[in-house]
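Tokens help. Consider this.
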Amino acid sequence: MIELLKRLVNACSVSGYENEVRELIIEEISNNVDEIKIDKIGNLIARKGHGKPKVMIAAHMDSIGLMVKYIDDKGFIRFEPVGGVDKRIVLGKVVNIYTCNGIIKGIVGCKPIHLFKKEKKITTPEMEEMYIDIGAKNKKDVEKSKIRIGDFITFESKVVDLKNNRVAGYGFDDKIGCLQLIEIAKNIKDFEGTLYIVGTIEEEIGLVGVRGSAFSINPDVLIALDTTIAGDTPDIKEGEVVPLLGKGPVLGIKDAVSIVNSNVKKWLEDSAKGVGVKLQYDVLSHGATDSSVASIVREGIPSGSLLIPTRYLHTGVEVVDMSDVKGSIKVMMKAIENACDYLCK
């Protein structure tokens, strides 16, 4: 499973450029599903089985990143964040710029700290003050590298093995969800209905892809597989964020725009009990997942989310506990197998 996660992390997936992750998912599940299609905007929709109930599990294929905004005469590249990028982690990063002629590497720089006024030294520079240096001598040098305005940029990263079955890397939000989609597609056997395995686009910039895919499928239920903030670092107050690493997957109760459907909540809770997995719970005033907009698609689709607690979300070193991921897969597979008991009434 770790090797597959590493392949997912190495695939570019900035919102709007999900091609590489999509192709990897297709490669992994093509022998385990009955049909695969890509809709008009780029969502991946795989079907397994037929009949009722129709269960849709979704993970967004995109992740946060940057985009080329402007190239100055000296050859420095200004950029725009794509999604909720934490400015505190951008400076000093090695980045990959995806051009029509391949990947160009660069580093994110800004004025040296020696030249900042005293009060400025204790603050993080704004992204407008930063730029990417590819080693170019001038603007023409950059253009020779085929770098253009609108090119996508990712942070250089690899999956790092930590202690206690924990790993760190870039884009776990939501390549951890994509990993679960693949594992479920490969291993689900006992289901009499229709399972839709969906990789959505552009979740990070406004839950874009799920609206169209959910509308076209019109499932009986939609479950989003995503990440959530872990509250076990020393800078988070007790009670501010409840989920902890290694204590099980998280059932999202509330976010900024939705509350879990009560029947879906019972279905997931009973499924977790059935496989001996302890759930955690998340009640938030911010954020959203692909499940959050399901209730306003068509006449309304019952929905919920299974989330993986993650440290340092939206940075290049997100940390998860793989036991939580494995627990989430177990719960979701059990839920799919007994879906008719809850959805065929």
About this structure: Helices lie at 2-10, 19-29, 139-144, 172-187, 208-217, 262-274, 322-337, 339-343.
